[in-house]
Write a structure and sequence with these properties.
Blueprint lengths: L1 H34 L20 H17 L1 H15 L4 E4 L4 H13 L2 H15 L1 E9 L2 E7 L16 E3 L2 E3 L7 E6 L2 E4 L3 E5 L17 H21 L2 E7 L3 H10 L20 E7 L16 H16 L3 H5 L7 H39 L6 E11 L6 E11 L4 E4 L8 H13 L5 H7 L4 H16 L6 H6 L10
């Protein structure tokens, strides 16, 4: 009997040992992974440079990691996609300064040839993700063609015999003025600066290469991904289940019963599985009357949720976007709080719209110049201009229209997507009342509606002149529109 008792205690000890080893293994995996960076092998320590610019190797590493975050990290992708949508999404319109059919025709051809509905988004996406974008100009039958250059191929050539100015990071500038770019060295070939659009962000004007928008939040994107992984492991540990089977009989019967119900995949003679325990459940077989205590992992990590929110707030602060935009979840905020919190995000989008406006205006100007060079447009146009003439005899001033010849304008106006959707009718009515009571000026009212007063007045004047010169209105049409007197009733 003593031998049987020793054997029973040994079986119980083995069961408890397996249980404790399983718990210890899970805890070690969770704690070890929490201290390690799974992406550490793919990162390169950044320390070279003058703090304003990165060394070429660091810049390449940052660009690769930014692309990884865009393609593999949901929050990194969401931040970039939000910027693209609000900067050049639906509602982005280019309006030529010259209201001429030929100019509009060239613009339509350029837009279709370059697939600009998608390319304008790619311009912003590449810039925000990589920190810069290089676009080379080509022409085909007078139409400007845009093609992207890979930023990693813009680098110093092996031989610098053809270098005229100061060369660094693949960009050749004037030796006395780093902001005057002379050429770009792409894949060992020199391309004149007049053939390339280069847009860089988040650096000073005298720094040659840009830095990714995701740089400031990259560490927090890694932290949040690791935090989610740990939460999943913690849930698995907390949900550990054991099935205890009590057998009446001797310890030998306990061993034989336990052998029949192993939790591992065991095959019978015919090859079928005889596993009797649900997946994720461990079975322990003990004698009747033996007290068995299952040690549950007392993790006590309820406050870990606050760590996740703190990481999200770091991403929000680094990107300049409110938390509900970063997470695409506004369930924890009411209408009033959301209205207040969206203001910083709105200002962020407006700043980037203004930042990209110059690039798109430069592209439009290059389109007009290419069309003129390809003889699709004439560089000189005849226009009428009002001048004031003073009579020498009477001294009276009269206004006369004269025909002048001027250069075709290469300017345009850019309309960006609407950022905030409000009740436009209620807002317009309120501004009308304020303007009628002389509380605000016409300029201020236009600005409140995000309109340029001078530009809108000029457009209205041009529309009135177009209506007055409508070539499709004939004298017969005017006679047909005259009122016919009613015939008196009998």
């Amino acid at each position: 009997m003593a031998f049987e008792g020793i054997k029973a205690r040994q079986v119980l000890a083995r069961i408890k040992l397996r249980e404790l080893e399983t718990i210890e293994q899970n805890m070690n995996e969770a704690s070890t992974s929490s201290l390690e960076d799974s992406d550490s092998a793919q990162w390169v320590a950044m320390g070279s440079g003058d703090n304003r610019s990165l060394a070429i190797q660091d810049q390449s590493t940052l660009r690769d990691r930014a692309r990884y975050f865009f393609y593999a990290n949901p929050y990194g992708r969401n931040v970039i996609r939000l910027l693209v949508k609000y900067i050049v999404g639906r509602g982005f319109v280019v309006t030529p300064a010259e209201d001429l059919p030929d100019v509009q025709r060239v613009l339509d051809m350029f837009w279709k040839k370059n697939k600009m509905n998608n390319r304008k988004k790619e311009i912003v996406r590449r810039t925000m993700r990589d920190g810069e974008v290089f676009i080379r100009k080509f022409q085909e039958n007078g139409i400007l063609l845009l093609r992207f250059l890979q930023p990693e191929l813009v680098k110093d050539p092996d031989s610098k015999r053809a270098v005229v100015g100061s060369l660094k990071y693949g960009i050749e500038t004037d030796r006395d003025d780093v902001e005057t770019v002379l050429a770009y060295w792409y894949n060992g070939k020199r391309i004149d600066s007049s053939e390339v659009f280069h847009k860089k962000i988040l650096v000073d004007s005298d720094v040659r290469r840009g830095r990714s928008f995701l740089e400031a939040i990259a560490k927090y994107l890694v932290y949040y991904s690791q935090w989610i992984d740990r939460r999943v492991k913690m849930s698995l540990i907390r949900n550990a289940v054991a099935l205890v089977k009590t057998v009446v009989g001797s310890p030998s019967k306990v061993d034989s019963t336990a052998a029949k119900f192993e939790t591992s995949n065991k095959k019978a003679a015919d090859g079928t599985s005889i596993q009797q325990v649900p997946k994720g459940v461990s079975m322990y077989v003990v004698n009747k009357g033996v007290d068995y205590e299952f040690k549950t992992p007392n993790v006590q990590a309820a406050d870990a949720q606050h760590d996740g929110r703190a990481i999200l707030l770091g991403i929000s602060a680094g990107s300049g976007l409110p938390e509900f935009m970063v997470t695409s979840d506004a369930s924890n905020g009411n209408y009033a709080s959301t209205m207040v919190s969206e203001a910083p995000g709105t200002m962020e989008f407006e700043d980037w719209q203004e930042d990209f406006e110059d690039l798109f205006k430069d592209i439009y100007a290059a389109m007009i110049e290419t069309a003129i060079a390809g003889q699709l447009l004439t560089g000189q146009i005849r226009d009428t201009e009002e001048v004031v003439v003073i009579d020498d005899t009477t001294g009276e001033a009269t206004t006369e229209k004269i025909v002048v010849t001027r250069d075709l304008s290469t300017d345009c106006s850019i309309t960006f997507p609407e950022l905030i959707h409000r009740d436009i009718k209620a807002e317009t009515d309120a501004l009308t009342i304020q303007n009628n009571n002389e509380w605000i000026s016409d300029h201020t009212a236009s600005a409140r509606l995000d309109l340029d007063y001078i530009e809108e007045q000029d457009l209205l004047r041009r529309e009135r002149e177009t209506e007055e010169k409508d070539p499709f209105t004939t004298k017969e049409d005017e006679e047909d529109t005259e009122e016919v007197p009613e015939t008196p009733e009998a």
